[in-house]
Design goal:
The chain is an all-alpha fold and about 110 residues long. It has four helices and no strands.
Length: about 110
Amino acid sequence: MTDKLLLSLWKNVQQAAVDFAASPDAAANKKLHETCLAYAAEKNPQVDPIILPFGRSKGKTLKKGATDDLEWMMDRLKENIVDETKSKWKEGNETLLAAIEAELATR
């Protein structure tokens, strides 16, 4: 971790906060959330910022989710990604799916 990288990430957080203050819509909120998580993850690599949003492991961090719960969640996410009625959440579902796949690959 370099000071230059942390400074860059912190500037991203600050800009996202300014954007959110100017227009507190969903996109600005998401950007602020993601930049804060990126900064926190770089500042402390032990941070597991992904909280499972549903299923038996709901509320647990990704690393603490049970393997069988993560596998079940992967199947639900894949279904939701192709479901046109759930297109509003497609990007978030794809991100969560990729994170779960990466976590399962390390187990």
